[in-house]
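Q: Give me the 3D complex with beta-L-arabinofuranose.
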Amino acid sequence: MKRILLFGLLGLHYMATQAQSLPQPKSPINPGNPVITEKYTADPAAIVHDDIVYLYVGHDQAPIEKNFYEMHQWLIYSSSDMVNWEERAAVDVKETFSWAAGDAWAAEVIEKEGKFYWFVTVSHKDVHGKAIGVAVADSPIGPWKDALGHALITNDMTTDTKISWDDIDPTVFIDDDGAAYLFWGNTICYYAKLKDSMVELESEIKQIELPHFTEAPYIHKKGDFYYLSYAYKFPEKTAYAMSSSIEGPWQYQGILNEVAGNSNTNHQAIIEYKGKDYFIYHNGSIPTHGGSFRRSVCIDYLYYNPNGTLKKIIMSSEGVEAVK
Ligand code: FUB
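A: Here is the predicted complex, encoded as structure tokens.
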């Protein structure tokens, strides 16, 4: 009898210790991916300023019967944990850029000496095709003012391709020596050095050869390496190249992310925040009406291999953990 009691107690103790070592369930306040569900959001760009992440997205506003982009504004969100995002501003394309015909396509923000420069894709009123403009602000959420009163890049400045939408998707990068560069393009990947003012080109427009380059170039640096990630083929995957100089040569490294669910575009931003690396992208995963023209921003982890190459992204519906 004593033996049965002893085994029973040991069994209960074993079950209790096993239960204690089970992982705890995720916090119900972690909403997972997509990170914003009350609006359709696309083409993420992100910066970290004063320990807060600012997320800049295009607002996909296409009605359900429309099978193309309808984007009249950009939205700005902020977060201090990568999970809970608060909408901080909505910026109308035509109100901000008087020379623009509309189309708040992909954009990117960078900070220099206390000013924030927002490079945007829009359609030009007078020069046929897409164009790149720059807005400037004293804070990461605005108010934004057209820095030039005209476009920085127009379609007639790049004539090696006949398409009118090759001047899209600007990404901007400031190197360790303070020199700033603008990369952009569709079909051809362009880049140019910017002047100190950030709103004028210093160099001629050059081109980079990348396998199956579609659009959405994005530059970031980690350690000694520069990374140029971009949308590859169509429907788009994300591929990347590496270099030890911002001027190249760029060495193609392969696919970083597969086609994102239910969206034929796949536009990325990469940031480091509080010791972790994040891959921010969009998919079309909001049920019922989500898709290629009603997209949603998602966030998953990015991991580096010891030699600096990137591990393939594991897209998830759980998303990332809230940063403590
Ligand atoms: O959102 C409009 C366009 O779709 C962007 O400029 C491209 O990067 C693609 O995501």
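A quick observation: Helices lie at 2-21, 93-96.
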